[in-house]
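As a warm-up, study this chain.
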Amino acid sequence: MVVAFTIEKDGSVNEVRAENIPVYSEIVDIDGVETKVEHEATSLVDEAIRGISLMPKWKPGTIGEEKETVRVHFTIPVCFQFSGTEDEKIYTIDDIEVQPEFPGGESAMYEWMSKKLVYPDHYNEISIAGTVVAQVVIEKDGLISDIKVVKSLDPPLDKEVIRVVSMMPKWNPGKHDGQSVRVAYKIPVKFQLK
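Now compare it with the structure written out below.
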């Protein structure tokens, strides 16, 4: 769904309303006839409106060279994700007995990455050092998903880390109680460009 609202001149949130309201359907038995009934997800709508309404004051919008304060209309997509079943749970490395592992171990992972990383041309002329940290989910089958940068160094380098991590081969998955499970995992990538 989308929640639309207005930021007033004083920065307060006003006129909060939902658009593109989600609908769910169910099959019900009405006098012996199975009938599909659709409902608006009003509890989700109410929660989205409540959440937006509780926002602290924003920095108000301005226009022109004189920076005249104006009202600004916003729309924000709101997505609800339910935790679902135990099969969908994402564990941390502290929650499991067997850690996920790149084939051949950590040193093999960094050797593999060093062969795949491509530095943008303009880095030949500048000096930059630091670490990009990517967070991923190692799926039950060892594939990588949900890649995002949680510690940035420089946008082009962040994009390169995401590109390379997305190409990784299957890992050996993490295990909990003898079963393969989904595991959140952080991959630090150090850069020293001079």
